[in-house]
Each structure stands twice: as C-alpha cells, then as structure tokens.
Amino acid sequence: MKRARPYRARGGGSKGLWKAAFTPGGWRALVIAALCFIPGAVPGWGAPPPVPPTLAEVGPLVVTRTPTAVGGGDCAAFDRAEIVRVDADGSLTVLSRGFESAADPAVSHDGRRLLFAGRRGAAEAWQIWELDLESGAARPITREALDCRSPLYLSRLFTLDSPEPWATMLYVGAEATWNEAGTDRIRSLFNVKLDGQERRRVTVNPADDLDPFQAWDGRILYSSRHFGPGGADSRLFAVNLDGTDYARYGAEAGRRFQRMPCMAGNGLVVFVESDEPTPDGAGLLAAVDEARPHRTYRTIPGEPGWLYLHPAPWMASGLLVSRRPAGGGPARLVGRDLDTAAETVLLDDPAWHWVQAQPLRGRSRPDGRSTVVNLDYTTGVLFGLNCYDADERFGASLAPGTIRRLRVIEGVPADGDRPAPLGRRLLGEVPVEADGSFNIEVPADVPIELQTVDEDGLALATCGWIWVKQRENRGCIGCHEDPERTPENLFVKAVQRPPVRLTLPPERRREVSFRDTILPILEKRCSGVECHSGSDAGWQLGSGPGTARKTFRSLAGRSELSRPARTSRLAWHLFGRDPRRSWDSARSMPAPVIKRMPPAEAAPLEAGERRRIIEWLDLGAPYGAGDEGD
After folding, report:
1. Residue pLDDT, tens place only, 478-533
2. Burial annotation 53-71 (CB, 10 A radius, 16+ → b, else e)
3. Do residues 464 and 584 both lie within one domain?
4. Range of 481's domain?
C-alpha cells in the first residue's frame, strides 16, 4: 500500500496556489491555505497558545494560607495558618475560625466535608478534625498525645464476612520512638474510622512516611524516608490502605529527595524532587506514568528561579501547585497545564504563603479494598521466589548455591526523651533452597531487614526495611524490586512446606553489640602481650575505666569497621583475604596486604566467635546501650 502524501502545489508563490486551485481537489487546498491566515478560524491554527483556566472558570478552591512573617522564606512553618475557601469571584472565607493554626485540608468524595489538621492553642498537639462545609461545625477525630497531620479520606475497606464496607481516613502520626539515625521522632501512616475508633498502623518504616495520596486503584502513594550508607533520601512508595503489599514506586530514577506525589487526570503521577532536602519540601516537578512507573521517569520544566510544592489534580491535564522563589519568598498559587507547560497565577499576596490547594468539589471514589488483616493474629508470612533475581547486580556473579542462608533482622526504635539510633537484633537465620526460595513466619508490624548470606556467613545483600501485617501472606523477590522483573509464578521449593517460624518473644531475640558480645572475644583472643595490648600495637585494647569505649574507638579510628562485613578490614583479617564482591563500589581498589588474625602461632577463633563478629559487622557494628563512661 502506498502512503498518502499531503497535497503540495507545484510552482512557487501565489502563482502556484492559483494553478493548484484548478486541479482535482484544488479548491479545498486553496480554502485551507486561506484559513491559515485567519487567527482562530481553525482550532489550534494561528490561535494563541492555550492557557490554564482561570479561577473564575473552574469554581471554588480550598487552600491553606500561612503568614510570611511566621514562615519566612519557605513554607515549612504553619503557625497561625488558616484554611480558606476561595470562590470563583476571588472572595475569601476563613473556614478554620476558632483554631490557633490549621492546615492540610482534604475534601471528601462528595465535596460536602473537609478533613484538616488543627490545634486550638499553640501548646497543643495537632489533631485531625472534620468540618461540615454546610453548617461550619467541626468535630475532632483523633485525640493523640503527639502531632497528627496530613489527613486523607479513603475508599472503603471490607472483609468477606463483614456486613458492609466501612469508611476510614488516613493520617501521618508522630510517634514516641526515634528514627533510625536517632535524629528525630518517627512519623508513620495510620488508618482510623471516621468516628475515631480502631486506629491501625499502616506503615512500619523506622524513619518518616509523609505526603499520602490515594490513587484511583486504591493504593496509597507517599514519600518514604530511608537512611543508607550515603545518608538519607526520600523516595516514592505505594501501599494498600490496610498496610499490605508495601513496594517502591518509581524505582530510583530522579533526584534524591522526592515528595508530595499526586495523580493527574492524564495518567501522570507528578511529584516534587530536589537534590538536597528543603525545609518545606519544595523542589522541581517530575513525573512517571502510572502504567509503568519504574520505566517512565521524566522532569517537568518549570519557571526558572522558582521551586514548586503541593501539587494537586485540577483538570484533565492540569495541576494546582504552589511555587516560591528559590531564594525564599512568598509562595503563590498557580494553575499548571501539563500539556503546554503554561501557568496562570491564581493567588498571590506577599503577606501570605498560599499552599495545599484543592478543588472544592465532589470526585470519584477510588477502588475499595478487601483486607485479610486480622488483628487477632500477631504474625504474618513472607516468602521469596528467587533470591538470585533480587538484584540486577548479581547477574552471573553468583553461581547457584552461593546463597546459603537468609538472616532476618528486627529493627528496634529507641524511645524515651534521649535521642538514640535504631537498635537491631536477630530474629534468626533460615536455609535458602536450591532454587533461591525461602518461606518464613515473622512478627507482624515489626520493621525487618533480610540479608542473604554466603558460606562464610557474610551478607551478600541487604534489603531495606519491610514488614508484614497480621495474617498477611506476602511474596517478594528482594529489595523493593521492579515489578517487571517478577519471575514466573512457580511452585518453588520453600512454599511446598510450612513456613519456618521466627517468632521468639522479644526477650529471647538475640542482640549482638560490641560491649556485650564482641569485646569479650577480643579480650580473650587478642590481649596477649604480643598482640594488641602493647604500646606498639596498630590498635589497642583499652584498659581501666571505659575499656569498652576506648577499644571501640580504636577500631573505628583505623577504619576497621564498615557495613557490610565483607568491606570491613576487620573481616579481612579474620579470613586472611579480601572477601569483597564484584558489585562493591571499592572493589576496583587493590586491597592492602592482609595479615590473618589471630596469627598462626596463636589459638584460632572458634567458628561461633568468628560468626558473631561477622554478624555484628553486618548489623552495622553497634556499640550497645550504655553511658559514655562504661
């Protein structure tokens, strides 16, 4: 079949046009050519570029305004903030009268009610309230000791035996425990009925889970903070509204800090990202396609010199989004057309930051969710199909049989008034089947790390924090994998038998610390006069008061300690060789001359002693609870 060609007149200038007019179909070409010179005669031809609708065209909004005198150059502070209704004619109505501060508005699916975070007095904790938009009456939903923020109306939950579905809401709740780094309180997602009953935990990440948004399929998109060897980052994750099937959303593409996701009407998930954290979360706009979020990352060009925050769906291909000068200054509200990149300023007043805008109208309710979570249970099941497919870096680097066991680690956040980093203790180890599968039963609502282990007990890979819910049966490959890497759903060996139970009570779960576990081994094996007690030793065992702390600092000061254990110089001395793998970042650097320890003339370490040292390094070489002077 020949391809149809567009009509092209022979000859040049007006002569060519008039000549073409007397050929078959020529009159049509002449009319079309003439219309090209009449602005607006044909839609999109010669017309000015489209711009987002104005406020007068789209109806009322609800928005948070916070005084710039309080917030300063960014929008992080919400002291004395107000929730305001903005009508199509630009008139303003304060909806949060009677509150010292109010923020985080969320419109109900029918457009008649409003959830928000508010406090009556400056000394009070933020709580979640519901406002009837017709009567103006507000009622409290939460009554927690610590701050509750970012509420969200959810679709309905139901079970197979429930008489009818029940409505719930989601919010971000501060906790009394400290995050993984010991720098701030943990903030997690919680689910509660609209009458304030049956509060349930949704996420179990020992850091921050923020900015929830419910997608059309019922999943919650949110920003999850994690701590790694290179420091903290914030990435997009998704979870069911009952806390099951937690997974990364959008892979690792884009800038390091990603916040405030929302789903636009054209199938894009839009979010804010930055290379460095900003106090208010402001950054540049980026997006992924919700059909293939791991493969479709793109940036969204913005106005130079501005940072964006709090995008929200507005039109089919548009957003409500705030923007402020990159150097600091009042945030204005704009309407953004994602197809044309055009922006229209909707609200701009230098006395206020205008943020967290939402259309004040009804909308479709996202899909509901049937839940298997049963709070009468205390455990869940986690099974893996193939540990060898968990990470693209493994590839051909790991021969079958290299992965011998799976080490399961529990995270134990510190509580109390004194900041402290996350503790770790061992739930246990289980064999990995020849096909790379495993099947374990573990405590529910507990942060868990999984480490694949080789024949020497050295961790090959460690996943980020995961969890299971009560009575959940959760399958995975490895570390928040790309769904497109999911292998065939085979009847793997590990699931052909009951799961291995790693459900010891907390008081029987094993802790490995330097002070209580490692120092006794070093004192027993390394304190000889020819070893590490002499003045000419490379590193020395401490003596007298503070022995444990002195010895720990001596090891750390010589860069003997690192995680994972295979990258630690201390582990190299234990094996007398360099056990690093091809995917380790420093593998290309030649290892120094390694002297096996203890030396040949000394009594060797017992297998259990070496295993405990390796476990300790793979757990991050914790010192252990105690005072500086112990």
Report:
1. 444 566 766 677 888 999 999 999 999 999 999 999 989 998 888 887 765 456 55
2. bebeebebbbbbbbbbeeb
3. no
4. 379-510
